[in-house]
Specification:
With about 130 residues, the chain is mainly alpha-helical. The chain contains 6 helices and no strands.
Length: about 130
Amino acid sequence: MRNINATLIICGAIYIAQGFIFLVAPDRIVSLYGLEALNDSMAFLMTIIGSAFVAAGVWFIMTILNPIRNINAIKFAILWCSLFVISPLYGLWQGYVDFNQIWLGMVINAVFVAALLIFYPRKQQIED
């Protein structure tokens, strides 16, 4: 269980930190991703996204209190990270972003998907 707990803590901490940056410094995120100027509508959407990141990160970390009982939270973490691997590809396909703007986030989330699947509590682990 230590491996799944460590994965959830690290993943949750990254999302909480990223969420706070989205909330307090959306202009820095725009600059980091190499996007154009930030307008008010985009800044508003980034605060909403930041709130969602913080909430997900807190939930991931709280899951370590009882991973077996909170198995759906682990499944949600797998889905959440998987979508952050897949969904940027749509933006790339539509021409909204370049690969160099999205590759790092995709790689980090792919690592978390792999770790969550590898360390996922299986039935034999639950019975031990």
